[in-house]
């Protein structure tokens, strides 16, 4: 057996990684270009002006704040529901267990447009007007799976005898939950929560169906993509979004590092 | 007092584990059952209605007419085009993903393992729209790709390629090749991860045995590694296929004016106001994925997830 990879394999692997990363890096360059009418390459000059222009745009701030609010609340709901589900599925075998894990995965396994149009037609039928909560409803639904995946992996690794020992020593369920179970699953939950937040913050397909006239940051970007009006501002926003979403992912990585199941594998 | 109550509740739950299980399961089940499945059924129900051609209103009577409309030439083209694109993206992703996954699983150690892991994870999780946007920059006429071809004096290659009917076009950003590239880029990590997971489970001794028995590296790859990686490739293809089939943003931003299923659904439910037809279109990906998942399960793809 060769202990080193062949040259061809190394080139293909590193080339593949570059293919994944160069386009994102390109955005960082474009954020500084002086050109504002086209996507000209190489940039004719470099400037920092667009950062202050973007900073003073109320529509960007409004979209950002709506996105953050939606992501925060959807993540909170998903964390509660996902953890409950994971606890049930991991701790016991019961009738319909497979159905539950399928049900949790379905919103992300089916194309987003199906979730979107389903919710929209349900809102229509039930006469629910579009609001902040209709967006949250959609986001929480597909965020559950991320929390669930992380939590269920941790529950499986946490030995059930810990819980039994705690209760044998006289702790109630609530004390066991507080002092034994939660500390054990905390980092997995945090990682799941961060990924759910990143997923919600970035979601656009379902959101276009459930937002009505409201603009989350991805919807703002989508409009710029379809009809480019302020290219420089879009470049800056795109760069900031890349940086902002990298942070929770790096965080989730460090929290689950060394555990056998990899966070986010089931996105 | 509160403590005594907590103790009593706790005792009660201990004696009846079924009750505890019920308490755990009911909230998520209610949410997913009502919000998600309820909406999904509402959608399915709509696909059995039809639209009145004169008034443009939805007729709430059971009919299969709307499904029949899917087979009209213009609509059927959309289905065929989408499924072809999804297949092409899946095959392309498998080819590009395999070396990355193979290297990451077999050779990357220590620091490089982390580099590969994050190198796949960061693009997977970074913003979908930003990724699409970056390709709008790359494929633009004045963008970096055309500049690269010009600088290398290879513009004629690009022009010859763009002249090929079907996959070419006026420029890369309005051709099917452009759409394909963006799809490939955006969904590639979804293919790498399961393939890598499958390859990590292949014991190195098996490859040594193959070599000891006289197989050349190519033969080992063909007869030992690939069959063992296949469940991973199929698991990845579930994502690449499903995601491509349902996407309506990428073909809208990069590509020709011919529509894919996602765009048709979006237009029929929006501007055209034909919700039954939109619903019938939406059922196609569900049905295709249903068949796909059944086959994948038979081939053991779920173990590689």
Explain the overall architecture.
- The complex is a heterodimer of chains A (267) and B (305).
- With 267 residues, chain A is mostly helical.
- Chain A has a single domain, classed as MetI-like (MetI-like fold), CATH 1.10.3720.
- Chain A contains 11 helices and no strands.
- Chain A has helices at residues 7-30, 49-55, 58-91, 97-109, 112-126, 132-157, 160-168, 173-202, 205-210, 217-226, 231-256.
- In chain A, helix 1 crosses helix 11 (231-256), helix 3 (58-91) crosses helix 10 and helix 8 packs antiparallel against helix 11 (231-256).
- The radius of gyration of chain A is 22 Å and the shape is globular.
- Residues 260-267 of chain A have low confidence and may be disordered.
- By secondary structure, chain B is an all-alpha fold.
- Chain B has a single domain, classed as MetI-like fold (Orthogonal Bundle).
- Chain B is 74% helix and 1% strand.
- A two-stranded antiparallel sheet of chain B has the order 1-2.
- The longest helix of chain B has 34 residues, at 73-106.
- Classes of the chains: A mainly alpha (267), B mainly alpha (305).
- At the A-B interface, helix 1, helix 3, helix 4, helix 5 and helix 6 of A face helix 1, helix 2, helix 4, helix 5 and helix 6 of B.
